[in-house]
TrEMBL record:
This is Diaminopimelate decarboxylase. One of its GO terms (molecular function) is diaminopimelate decarboxylase activity. It catalyses: meso-2,6-diaminopimelate + H(+) = L-lysine + CO2. It comes from the Bacteria. Residues 29-373 form the Orn/DAP/Arg decarboxylase 2 C-terminal domain. GO terms for biological process: lysine biosynthetic process via diaminopimelate. Pyridoxal 5'-phosphate binds at G239, E275, P276, G277, R278, Y375. Residues 35-281 form the Orn/DAP/Arg decarboxylase 2 N-terminal domain.
Length: 421
């Protein structure tokens, strides 16, 4: 459920007409709903009620300061995967003890920054990384709390580019080697082993792969405890999917996920940590774009819009589906049309949808790409020297630009000319 609904024939973001925001900021832009972010965070928090837990928002999904502050105010922790994300989380006022540092290749500088600024734990991805964390901690005279990310070799049954839990993927250490790696970790004086981490992929639409992975983690917890390790915390990653195609998708709900977590892991008495990104942010955002032209092709109609693959890359990169709706509600009984919906960027990959049936549009009409709140703005680029599009946050009947559109001069002036030119 989200807060982008038609009222009297007009699309609203909470209590603000989307057309009003478009008139104020210009198109294209991202528009987020505070209430949806809050609702989705709470769904996870409530799903784990009764167990000691922390929901650490995977901020890679959408990392504007205003969004981080909104979630942090509800008590969210943050899952960060780079020095930049760590700095963003701190700048938004998230205390170090609520920041988990994940990521497959943490550099010495990033490790140093997190140990200096404070963190909840590092999720260690390899033995070489473990050695560097130990070294930096010893240099600083501190002890780094760590979990080791295990790769359970489970098929997440999701898009190949976002599956992470098979042995062929670059993530974690093979679960079969966990005892050896934990024994090594325990021997390093700069580290304190506190738990186990696992994340098997993103946009999972079934509970079974999670269940298989968590069962392996439960077994491993008991084995490692028997080996003498103090396993107190289980970080279960993120990955729960959202319904991108609302007419025919119904992935499991957070409450069902939470029940499964308690069933598989509840008996261990561990603190549970989860790192959802997409489910919190995805349906909390839309991308609003304007139709520039409707062009008759030989055998199809092209809807050319002012948003493009540089603004929302998911369709081009993962063949992802986004529901696309007009900002003015179609009248019932109106004859629809089929469009290839494309952006102005100079490559065929800049296609959002092929032969998409929707209400007829004309140049100047506004459309909204739904489910664009996660991995939308954060993956955008300035390809074709198109400015990064603004982000707008709605809260009830108010809205604010939370990242403005840069000017052409700002973009150009980031380049520097060598003295020989
Ligand atoms: N934890 C770790 C260690 C992760 O790598 C990820 C996502 C998450 C948590 C959050 O997963 P989520 O709950 O959002 O599924 N750009 C792709 C998605 C990449 C996901 C990367 N890792 C997309 O647009 O579909």
């Amino acid at each position: 459920m989200d807060h982008f609904l038609y009222r009297d024939g007009k699309l609203f973001a909470e209590d603000v007409p989307v057309s009003e925001i478009a008139a104020a900021v210009g198109t294209p832009f991202y528009c987020y709903s505070t209430a949806t972010f809050e609702r989705h965070f709470r769904l996870f928090d409530e799903a784990l009620e009764g167990t000691d837990h922390l929901v650490c928002y995977a901020m890679k999904a959408s990392s504007n300061q205003a969004i981080l502050k909104t979630l942090a105010a509800l008590g969210a922790g943050m899952d960060v995967v780079s020095g930049g994300e760590y700095a963003r989380a701190k700048a938004a006022g998230v205390p170090g003890e609520r920041i988990v540092f994940s990521g497959v290749g943490k550099t010495r500088d990033e490790i140093h920054a997190a140990l200096t600024g404070g963190l909840r734990q590092f999720n260690v991805e390899s033995e070489p990384e473990m050695a560097v964390i130990n070294e930096v901690a010893l240099e600083l005279g501190v002890v780094a709390p760590i979990t080791v990310r295990v790769n359970p070799d489970v098929d997440a049954k999701t898009h190949a580019k976002i599956a992470t839990g098979k042995s062929e993927n670059k993530f974690g250490i093979p679960i079969s080697r966990a005892r050896e790696v934990y024994a090594h970790a325990a021997s390093l004086p700069g580290l304190k082993v506190i738990g186990i981490d696992v994340h098997i992929g993103s946009q999972l639409t079934q509970l079974e792969p999670f269940r298989l992975a968590y069962r392996k983690v439960a077994e491993l917890t008991e084995t490692l405890r028997a080996d003498g390790h103090d396993i107190q915390r289980l970080d279960l990653g993120g990955g729960l999917g959202i319904p991108y195609e609302r007419s025919n998708e119904a992935p499991p709900l957070p409450v069902e996920y939470g029940a499964m977590v308690k069933e598989e892991l509840g008996h261990l008495g561990c603190e549970i940590e989860i790192e959802p990104g997409r489910l919190i942010a995805g349906n909390a955002g839309i991308m609003v774009s304007k139709v520039i032209y409707v062009k008759e092709g030989e055998d199809r109609e092209f809807m050319i819009v002012d948003g493009a693959m540089n603004d929302l890359i998911r369709p081009a990169m993962y063949e992802a589906h986004h529901d696309i709706i007009p900002v003015v509600e179609p009248t019932p009984g109106e004859e629809p049309a089929a469009y290839d919906i494309v952006g102005p960027v100079c490559e065929t990959g800049d296609t959002f949808a092929k032969s998409r049936t929707m209400a007829k549009v004309e140049a100047g009409d506004l459309i909204a790409f739904r489910s664009a709140g996660a991995y939308g703005a954060v993956m955008s680029s300035e390809y074709n020297t198109r400015p990064l599009i603004p982000e707008v946050l709605v809260n009830g009947d108010q809205f604010a630009v939370i990242r403005r559109r840069p000017t052409f001069d700002e973009m150009i002036n980031r380049d520097t000319i060598p003295e020989w030119l």
